[in-house]
């Protein structure tokens, strides 16, 4: 193999229309890997015969019947030491993947494809590095339904009611000198379905414990949530009967994919490189936002004082009619971000692009340029339409996916990661979503709710987003609750950024391009200046990055050790990420 450190990612052709499929949104694997910063090469299925020998690892997404000649080439490639990670498909190579497809119980009209359906992953080998981090069963949607043959089951699949029928979820197989892993679950489709939920056209179904009465005749993002009130929530420490979504399920699926890659790389002693998600080797980011409901100047002043004591800048989502010009300028002068709070909740204000446009124009005249929005009451209707409203007006980041009821608190959309949404036809929206994780600690839920949410963001290296309304800053515990969670994050190495900072950093980082020579030396270039970026190397290679030795400290990410190097990556457009 000419370059055993190269990872190739191949999204396989999808089945014809009106045919079942094992993977939805297969192209979203690129979004997941690019967000994680994994350095890889895109390979078309037509290029597999030609390029297989140049790869150390192949990742395929989907199920596609490989031609006999390609099967022979890939079988030989794996047996000589190649590593193949297949997501959602056997591709006619049952012997290589150590798995056998399950047949439909009834092959009538429209039959012939047996899916995993909706269910839960449970680990069979809790010490396996791919799944050792997982504490409980993990919700999934779809995938290829197979039984293990020669392969070893790492995790199995329960149905949505928690029942087992011997179906596998992850299978590992040794084939000659090579190794394969089959993730049967539709991993990209599961991530998308949890992060984005379903289209909101009617009330959601409430939790039976009374903690989340979402059937309130107000359409909001949580009405489209797909996680389970029973299986996906956990008791809140100190919450006296409150359960919340304390485990970010979509992030856990992201991590399974990344751990599979790093596990295979470690078994092959491959050199895998990653552009870490945050500057200065930061483990995660904290974010505080405020919705100015009521626009009470006295409460805003109390909040400004508390932010000053906490030593952070935050994002103020301002609802019309807004604050006075003097107070707006005071908020701006303190370094805080001024953003939009779209109101389709107040009587007389309709949900629709015309109303959004009107409010955006009025707020832009008051606040100036805005890049961030959060909808009042987390209102939401439809599917992707709202992201189009934002895109057409230069709103680059939205925060409207989150909990409106206490029992929805936490990761009801399953993620701590900023993400770009995807439409049903596979088109990626350029509007970044940063989910809201809870509202006012000590009011919306107990102050103790903040700790597991913060720790989850640290564990999965994302953003912990806490919303605090100025209107509550006359209450005795609100300011201390905010200051305490900020201090807790700082003590664990987090920085607290505005939404604008998060947006600018993510976009600058996503403009990076990589090149690696045969000696393992990496050249990293960027469209925008990227100050104090961190490059990780899984192997103890003597290679360089931008002519600088990879000689930094060892850090542990996703359960694996990496050599880290912090460096400035110059770009063509100057510094604009303000971090």
Which short descriptors sum up this protein?
single chain, alpha/beta, 13 helices, 579 residues, 24% helix, 9-stranded mixed sheet, globular, 8-stranded parallel sheet
Strand order of the largest sheet: 2-1-3-4-11-10-9-6-7
Give average pLDDT, whole number: 94
Number of beta strands = 29
Number of helices: 13
* Weakly predicted, low-confidence segments: none
> Strand pairing plus helix content: what structural class?
alpha/beta
Distance between the termini: 41 Å
Beta-strand portion reads 15-25%
Shape: globular
Percent of residues in helices: 10-25%
**For the report, how would you describe the main beta sheet?**
9 strands, mixed
Radius of gyration, CA atoms, in whole angstroms: 24 Å
Write the layout of secondary structure elements.
Blueprint: E1 7-11, H1 28-36, E2 41-42, H2 48-51, E3 57-61, H3 68-79, E4 83-87, H4 94-97, E5 99-101, E6 118-123, E7 138-141, E8 146-148, E9 152-159, E10 164-175, E11 178-183, H5 187-196, E12 234-235, E13 243-244, H6 249-268, E14 273-275, E15 285-291, H7 297-310, E16 315-318, H8 325-333, E17 337-342, H9 353-367, E18 372-375, H10 385-391, E19 397-398, E20 432-433, H11 450-459, E21 463-467, H12 478-491, E22 495-496, H13 499-509, E23 513-516, E24 522-525, E25 530-537, E26 544-545, E27 548-549, E28 554-557, E29 560-569
Parallel strand pairs: 1-2, 1-3, 3-4, 4-11, 15-16, 15-21, 15-22, 16-17, 17-18, 18-19, 19-20
Antiparallel strand pairs: 5-8, 6-7, 6-9, 9-10, 10-11, 12-13, 14-25, 23-24, 25-29, 26-27, 28-29
Helix pairs in contact: 5-6, 7-12
